[in-house]
Amino acid sequence: MSVSMAVYRLFDLIMLLMLVKIFLTWLPNINWNAQPFRFLHEFTELFFGVFRRILPPIGMLDLSPIIAFIVIRIFQIVICRALVTIGL
Length: 88
Description:
The protein starts with a helix and ends with a helix.
């Protein structure tokens, strides 16, 4: 497996974890202080928190996950294309 493919898959894993977190927020009985939910919450807040500070929730609508997905996808494309260009 090439380095660019490994990095591409890493970005896919990050986006998958973000998607799982979004779906789990719809369940009211999740204890975010218990493992593995605590890890998932803390990990995804690294991404969502940055965008939540830039664009706070509007009422009950939190747009930070959408922005995070778009930005991470752009980084995925740019970084992986750069790695392919240099031959990794």
